[in-house]
Amino acid sequence: MKIVKAEAKKIRYTSLMVRDGEGHSHPGKPHEDSVGFLAITCDDGTVGYAVGGNMNVDILNKVVCPAVIGEDPFMHERIWQRMRTWQRLHSLFSDRTLCALDLALWDICGKKCGIPVYKMLGGYRDKVPAYGSIMVGDDIKGGLDTPEAYAAYAKELVKRGYKAIKLHTWMPPIIPAPDPKMDVRACQLVRDAVGPDIELMLDPYHDYTRQQALYIADALNELDFLWMEEPMDEHSMSSYIWLTQNTGLQICGPETAEGKNRMRAEWIVNGASDIGRAGTEVTGGITSVMKSVHLYESFGMSIELHGNTIGNLHVLGAMGIDGKYFERGLLHPLLDYEKPKPWFKKIYDPMDEEGFVKIPDGPGLGLDFDFDYIKENIID
Ligand code: LLH
Ligand code: MG
Fold first, then answer.
1. CA 163 to centroid of ligand 2, rounded, Å
2. Please, are residues 208 and 178 in contact by the beta-carbon 8 Å criterion?
3. What is the reported pTM?
4. Which residue's alpha carbon is nearest to atom 13 within ligand 1?
5. What sign has the CA pseudo-torsion 365, 284, 55, 112?
6. Residue of 18, 168, 227, 252 with the most ligand 1 atoms within 8 Å of its CB, for mutation
7. CB atoms within 10 A of CB 342
8. Does 322 have pLDDT greater than 90?
9. What pairs with residue 356 in β-bridges?
10. Looking at residue 321, what is its pLDDT?
11. Beta pairing, strands 164-168 & 326-331
12. pLDDT, position 362
């Protein structure tokens, strides 16, 4: 089996999300936007797809797609390793772009074998509990503008079936300066609103000082939070070692630090977090996350995956270690998470009333595309 065609394009759509100056997403006025779409075709007609995830369409078409023509998609590890080394000098070739290639290749392999990707990886479970991941705070009336607004929304999420909730709190430019006290107040009110049986986590401003991070961690420990993630710049591993040693709260990470499984190995041997973290978009696809999963397992650690990606769902279905949750979100009172993006016929992560998401049962990634929409809205 050989790859005969590989091409990335963009799909036009109406977005309801805007990004602030620091890149955080919030609800906004409807406007035209586009999303990347990669299709890889084999000589027997099997096609693998990846969509979104901030893939760089230009790098895919100039660097990646020409390199995979003629390759056997089942020699997947070889392709991934080769592309990984190419990232060094192709400075715009991000892990998110590598992830798009990786997903399309896994999709092909699963489709060819007629089974879902999580079973190709070695299946462990067919559903996973989800947590509601609340969007970064804002200044929108009826949105997430106050600690009280978080508490009211958290109550709604519990009614919807969530057994665990994570807050992302306020960050510049929404507020002039990050505010640890406001973060703790929101966490306190959410704990009061949902009671002791809901698991809670916090992902605050990502550039606090050690003292600010410790103040929040100790307060959250009193509130019986499960973990805090990325309260400081992850390039300072020493700061994470210091925080992990000084607080009783579990620290989860690294999330955005570059270096895939190798950076995670450094964090493990240095004791820089209690819970590991990786994700298909931030660490270069399913292939990469599985390496981290096995790494954490070998050190007796659990790992929590970043983001609501289709790839993460399949990895979660193949994880025999304690990686408890699928991150469902980002959720916001003014947005309808249950509505599929226009290029899909249905969402891939519907959640039942008990708070579980079923792993799509394929074949391949099991994505249900609306090809009529895609055809009409593809940008050539
Ligand atoms: O900063 C943000 O907008 C969020 O933290 C976002 O990156 C989110 O995906 C995250 O970190 N989840 O864990
Ligand atoms: Mg995070």
1. 19
2. yes
3. 0.97
4. 306
5. negative
6. 168
7. 16
8. no
9. 129
10. 73
11. unpaired
12. 86
